[in-house]
């Protein structure tokens, strides 16, 4: 790497981290999750505000591949933490309302997303697999941002309430369905030459769940805190590399690593992953934002954004409220649950970026969907206030277990 490129990458990282911190704090002062400000900072670093020329000067072509690698490392850390925070018991929860509501929260926006992809958004089809494009848009509208949702619940001091626990359980199921759907989409559009690797996916999944998980339990139990940290990082990187090699995407391996890592040793694993995520995830916002150009938004685009928002918000909220009421929830609780599950945030951004790099969507539609992710996430706090759900701010923390334990504070904004 030329010396000038290295210098530019380091300068870019400083700019990115400062911008993410400033905009994140500003978002918090406005009653929004910090991720809203951080994503906005990434968008403003691109051609939307700076224009193509200045954006190229600040983030030159030689520096972008390096920033992309660093951004992917940040995403690996984020997805590992997301997997680590999933309560595996959520998937076998016996309360009938949870699987019913989660199914509705996923299938309704997924169906409407597929419908508008096949009708209103056809001009954005890039020539990739048509079925893949339709399913991808459905997946993009269906997702719920589990980590951002957890942050909102922590900030409102309702994470340990029934509505908080129910929303987390539903979000875990919805996100699992979204990742599975995205995996299917990537299989459909994968180059034909590498299809043989997909045959390894099922045996590898069995090996990881029933083979690697017990081994990790024993290794973590025998190691010190520092050794557990190395084990966690190594597991996340290895599984991310395996799924990337298969053609799936590194996010799946990182998420799986967090899912199987021993819960008894979460403190040591989280400490390192939070640091990596803090330093490098803002780079992902910037890399993702460089592909967003809202200056391209014309009258047709505004109409498409309205259609996307109507489908994403209407289907998600209506389905959760209706099924929630049928499952025995009162109207206020069902409405609050719908507002919470309408949060998309960072998880949405990861999915959209995967779709863009896989050639599943145009840059203009990608920009529209990023705006949709911002708006739907920003809607959550005002909707909860409107529903009169109690808001008791507490000191910022980031993940579910942190709030439950109440033993340490973390700030990864």
TrEMBL record:
GO terms for molecular function: antiporter activity. Keywords: Ion transport, Membrane, Transmembrane, Transmembrane helix, Transport. Pfam families: Na_H_Exchanger. One of its GO terms (biological process) is proton transmembrane transport. It is found in: Membrane. The chain crosses the membrane at residues 6-23, 35-54, 66-84, 96-121, 133-154, 166-189, 195-212, 219-239, 245-261, 273-292, 304-323. It comes from the Bacteria. Its main location: membrane. Residues 21-384 form the Cation/H+ exchanger transmembrane domain. InterPro entries: Cation/H_exchanger_TM, CPA2_transporter, Na+/solute_symporter_sf. It is a multi-pass membrane protein. GO terms for cellular component: membrane. This is Cation/H(+) antiporter.
């Amino acid at each position: 790497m030329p010396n000038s490129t290295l210098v530019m990458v380091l300068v870019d990282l400083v700019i990115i981290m400062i911008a993410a911190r400033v905009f994140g704090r500003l978002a918090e002062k406005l009653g929004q999750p910090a991720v809203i400000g951080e994503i906005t900072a990434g968008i403003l670093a691109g051609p939307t505000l700076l224009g193509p020329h200045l954006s190229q000067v600040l983030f030159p072509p030689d520096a972008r591949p390096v920033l992309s690698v660093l951004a992917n490392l940040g995403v690996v850390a984020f997805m590992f933490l997301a997997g680590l925070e999933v309560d595996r018991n959520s998937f076998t929860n016996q309360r009938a309302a949870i699987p019913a509501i989660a199914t509705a929260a996923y299938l309704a926006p997924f169906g409407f997303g597929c419908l508008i992809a096949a009708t209103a958004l056809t001009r954005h089809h890039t020539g990739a697999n048509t079925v893949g494009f339709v399913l991808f848009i459905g997946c993009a509208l269906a997702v719920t941002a589990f980590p951002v949702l957890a942050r909102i619940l922590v900030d409102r001091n309702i994470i340990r309430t029934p509505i908080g626990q129910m929303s987390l359980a539903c979000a875990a199921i919805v996100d699992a369905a979204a990742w599975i759907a995205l995996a299917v989409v990537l299989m459909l559009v994968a180059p034909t030459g590498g299809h043989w690797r997909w045959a390894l996916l099922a045996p590898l999944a069995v090996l990881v769940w029933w083979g690697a998980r017990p081994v990790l339990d024993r290794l973590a139990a025998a190691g010190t805190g520092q050794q557990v940290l190395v084990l966690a990082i190594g597991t996340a990187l290895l599984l991310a590399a395996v799924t990337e090699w298969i053609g799936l995407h590194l996010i799946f391996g990182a998420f799986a690593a967090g899912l199987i890592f021993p819960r008894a040793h979460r403190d040591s694993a989280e400490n390192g992953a939070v640091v990596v995520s803090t330093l490098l995830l803002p780079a992902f916002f910037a890399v993702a934002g460089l592909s967003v150009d809202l200056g391209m938004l014309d009258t047709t685009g505004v109409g498409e954004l309205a259609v996307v928002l109507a489908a994403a918000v209407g289907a998600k909220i209506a389905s959760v409220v209706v099924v929630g009421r049928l499952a025995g929830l009162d109207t206020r609780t069902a409405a609050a649950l719908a507002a919470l599950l309408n949060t998309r945030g960072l998880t949405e951004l990861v999915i959209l970026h995967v779709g863009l790099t896989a050639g599943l969507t145009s840059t203009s539609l990608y920009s529209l969907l990023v705006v949709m992710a911002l708006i739907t996430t920003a809607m959550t706090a005002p909707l909860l206030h409107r529903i009169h759900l109690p808001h008791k701010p507490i000191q910022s923390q980031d993940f579910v277990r942190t709030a439950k334990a109440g033993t340490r504070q973390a700030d990864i904004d």
